[in-house]
Amino acid sequence: MGSLPQYFMPSRNVRLSGFVALIVAASGLCLLIGWRAGAPFPGWWPFASFLLVAALLEGAFTTRVRLAASGSISFIIHLSSTLLFGVFWGAAISAASTLLGNIARGNEPLKTLFNVSQIILAIFAGATCYSALGGALPPAYLGGGGILSGSAAQRDLGLFFLFSAVYFVVNSAAVSTAVALSSDRAFREVWNVAARGVFGYDLAASVLAVMTAWLYARFNYWLGFGSLAVVLLVVPMVAVRHVYGLYRQLQESGQELLELMVKAIEARDPYTSGHSVRVSKLSRTIAVELGLAAPLIEEIETAALLHDVGKIHEEFAPLLRKESKLTEAETALMQTHAAKSAELVGIISKFRGFVQESVKHHHERWDGKGYPDGRGAGAIPIGARIILVSDTIDAMTTDRPYRKRLSGEAVLLELQRHKGTQFDPAVVELVVSSVAVRRLIAEPYSATASSELRSMQAKRLSWPSARLWRARQA
Length: 474
Fold this sequence. Notes:
single chain, Arp2/3 complex 21 kDa subunit ARPC3, Hypothetical protein af1432, 2 domains, 22 helices, 2% strand
């Protein structure tokens, strides 16, 4: 769960406030329904121990994920407390721990109110689906000393994964909507960045909640003090969280080195400053709009960021600084930058394969008249086809010594004129029809947008860190 951007426009504030009000009203109704159901109070020791552990995991061990969101492992306590004490007290523990965590992080009131309310709503939505299909709270496998046996126990265990799935869907949908409203992005784009393709990992991680509830029941059966199990579980949870934190820092360092390389290249050409970052952002948006898989979208974004790294070679320096048109020999030399970029990208084993191929072929044409290999149509990687369109768009919308930037409409006309010859027709049609892509073409790329994209890339995590720390906030 993370931070909503601070650069709200008035219209965004109105829409966001309305959405938060809706979530708050829905969560309040859920709490009222849960209270009237008359769930018994679990006792002060159990309530306090679950609350304190959840607050600790929420406030002190939160991981920033993508966009303006962050994640924590507090969802383990949210789910396990609901299994043990029922939906009302599970929601109460979840809400109180989320409130304490937000206060500890210094979040503003609107964000805190939203985060608390959406967690309540997620808990109630998941528990309602679970109970409607016959799931018991507490589940059958937590009775009789916590021994898992019998058809009822197996049914409850199976339905728990439905509970978790609904919890994660509601949580992700609410946060994605809030981020989309606050940042003026399309919901689909935000959802793809923050949630798409990770539910399998979420469900696998939710097994930890079952284990927590089961150990609580066993300790309660053996010693009459189940809270001890919850406290003891904090140590391994924090240890695992620390390992993944180190892994995230390593990823961020690698991303920062890539960005430093890109900056070094662009410093040679004042007219293309920020070019790679803009092409990366546009390529990502096109890939999202095409409905590509989340891992593929990330690889295309990375390839777009690195598509010109070969220009760091000294032989390209005078060509990049030249203000007049290149000669035929100079053009031939400049065209070698795609292959040289691919060679540099291939030094990193992680980028060999799709990323490297997308970089190498980002100047191939649909009609087979491009370079370096003269590939055509479907033989060109989809990443390269997207990067070519994005690269061309950025070139046309950037002021150059020999011409001024083109208008958005002029850019779209040029793309349509050359679709089926230079460009993939499907990619061009998507660009023309997509509101999100057209907005990027029509509006100048501000320093704020570029800074925001760099922050998104630097904070991006891969499994298991981005999947396991799943309970999200705005």
